[in-house]
Amino acid sequence: MRWNYRLVSALLVLTSIIGISFALYLEHVQGLEPCPLCIFQRIGLIGMGFIALIAFIHNPISNGFKRFYALLATLSIGWSVGVAARHVWLQNLPPDQVPSCGPGLDYLVDALPMKTVLQQVLSGSGECAMVDWTFLGQSLPVWSLLYFSLILLICLWQLFRNYNVLKK
Questions:
Q1: What family is this (predicted)?
Q2: Fewest Cβ atoms closer than 10 Å to its Cβ: which of 79, 84, 89, 106?
Q3: pTM of the model
Q4: Segment 72-106, tens digit of pLDDT
């Protein structure tokens, strides 16, 4: 099977839909309330999916456009990888080093400038360090980090692959 640009873009859209669907399932069916870091991870995944959807619909012929879309998707999912890594790090801190719980994300967005909101959320809080779901002994942020890293590898491959293969 030949992995053309459009097929990989569709695969990336599908990975975004699957990831967000699972997050919504955990939130609305299992009752897990997402912490601010979880919400920020979702933003990167949704952004990557949206960019991949535009690339799929546009189906660019130009290698420049293909690489541009791939770069945007890579940056977007890279954001999710970075936030998930921070989340895993917070969960592995000794209990006495975990930051105290702060105000909720809704309050932060309403009361503070966006730069301050980003700083506060990315510094983490006690609620982000809490492990309330595991699978095979690993927390949700660990699984998210693995999932996002796999998607990041696909995006990087899409960015750096050779598009000058002769068409049949």
A1: Belongs to the DsbB family.
A2: 106
A3: 0.77
A4: 999 999 999 998 998 888 877 776 665 555 555 56
